[in-house]
Amino acid sequence: MFSTLKSLLIVFVLLFCTMPLSFSEQIPVLDLNNYHSYSDNDSSVEYKIQHLEKIFSSRHKMHLKMQQKINSMSLEISELRGQLEKNNYEINKILERNKDLFIYLSEIHTKVKKTEEDIKFKNNISSSFDRYSSSIYEKQEKIDYQYALDLILKRKNYSAAIAAFEQFQKKHPDSGLLVNVHYWLGQIYFAMREDEKAIENFSIVIEHKDSHKRADALVKLGDISKRNNQIAIAKNYYYQVQNEYPDSSSAYLIKKNIE
């Protein structure tokens, strides 16, 4: 009996001793070192997120600035394109007018050249006959006129042409070519932008309603007025051309100025 109790006591003691060890194995232990590591990792992630946000914000601002510059440059390009189109339009107008003018001048030059050949032929005959003296004077008149005209068309020497035409006026005060002389003087002064002298000569031309240069002289007076911002006066000259010379090349050239 006693031995049996002793055996049971020993068993209970052993069980009691082993229980804390088993229980301790089931309780988790907090590792402070690992805890601090987890906290540091969280801080690192937060820092990286903030850093990425700053990079994104900076790039976003840079993108906005670049877009603003692109928009500004696009506007400038549009303005330049508009100015270029306007300049091309004005250049085309000038080229069209000059083309018609040079065609007309070429026709005049051809006619005058033919007349000059006739003059040379008749001058050889008139040297022997006094009755041709009047004809010689007329031919010399045309030669003097052609000489001055060649200074414009061939040599482009405007100063010499002005002097030659002024000499022509003194030498041939009753010439039927004086209207043409004033027309060409007006053209020279117009090209040189001496508007007052140009107006003076073109005004003399338009007084002769039978002159074939009257229509173009009216156009030039309109161009001078337009160049000096006298739009109403310019349009009056253009309308006069359109009404009096509706089928002329001058009327065709000023259509765009009236519209």
Automatic annotation (TrEMBL):
Domain named YbgF trimerisation: which ranges? 44-116
What is a single Pfam family found in this protein's UniProt entry?
A: TPR_6
Name the InterPro entries on file: CpoB_C, TPR-like_helical_dom_sf, TPR_rpt, YbgF_tri
Q: Where are the transmembrane segments?
A: none
Top-level taxon of the source organism: Bacteria
| Organism field | Candidatus Photodesmus katoptron Akat1
Keyword terms of this UniProt record: TPR repeat
Q: Which NCBIfam families match?
A: tol_pal_ybgF
Task: Check the record and name the Gene3D superfamilies matching this protein.
Answer: 1.20.5.110, Tetratricopeptide repeat domain
Q: In Gene Ontology terms, what is a biological process of this protein?
A: protein trimerization
Q: What is this protein called?
A: YbgF trimerisation domain-containing protein
Regions annotated as coiled coil: none
Residue ranges of the TPR repeats are 179-212
